[in-house]
Amino acid sequence: MQHKPLSEQDYQRLSSILARFSAQGCMNLEQLDGFFAALLAGPEAIRPAECLPIILGEAFDDEASFPSEKALEQFVSLLRGHWQDIADALNGGEFQPWLEAGTDGLVRGNDWCEGFVSGMELLNDDWGLLFDSPGHAPLLEPIMALGFERHPDAEMRPFIEDLSEPQRAELLSAISPSVHGIHDFFAAIRRQLEQEEQASESHSRRHH
Fold first, then answer.
1. Does residue 2 belong to any structural domain of this protein?
2. What interhelical angle do 29-41 and 165-206 show, nearest 10?
3. Of 33, 64, 151, 194, which one has the fewest beta carbons inside 10 Å?
4. Is the pTM of this model over 0.70?
């Protein structure tokens, strides 16, 4: 079945549902986009429904969050649609991060990158493969830079001074190629593992 990309209206609906729970630690649409990008570009895809507690925060356990089963189903179906939109962009299109301007009209990208970092934390060990790869680790630099820019612990922040607008613009424009590069890196590892498994299966079949 061909996936039909979410409409502008769908995205507004998704954004407003998420905004409703922001006081309970729910992700906003920009964070969600970064989070899903990490899950889809990373070592193995984790389904959106498995991540509801992380996405919704305390609203996940709150019976009153969704007035009915149907309302929850509609929300999950919007999440799946957004997930599939990102998957399609990574697999054959061009992925563009969903970045929103703040009240001052500036696009900062911190929410997106913090969402991506949350996604990495789910499969921390496997992401180590990327950190340990000298040729590919730099792909993470723009994301980590903005993902830790507002870290509560000042020692964890990558910048002492505030970023200039051109520096920020450069980091933001590096996100899309980085995500594609990360996706290709892990896809290649998965292909290699599959080939090795097939080879060892055919090897064991020959010896039986």
1. no
2. 30
3. 64
4. yes
Within a domain: 116 = yes
The span from the first CA to the last CA of the chain, in angstroms, equals: 40
Q: Could you give the number of structural domains in the chain?
A: 1
Q: What does the pLDDT profile of the chain (208 residues) look like in tens digits?
A: 567 899 999 999 999 999 999 999 999 999 999 999 999 999 987 888 889 999 999 999 988 899 899 999 999 999 999 999 999 999 988 999 999 999 999 999 999 999 999 999 998 889 999 999 999 999 999 999 999 999 998 888 888 788 899 999 999 999 999 999 999 999 999 888 888 888 888 877 776 6
Give dist(CA 63, CA 77) in Å, integer.
Answer: 19
Q: Which residue has the tokens 């991540």?
A: 51
Looking at the domain assignment, is residue 1 inside a domain? no
Residue 177's CATH number: 1.20.120.740
Q: What's the domain range around 149?
A: 8-206
Do the Cβ atoms of 9 and 94 come closer than 8 Å? no
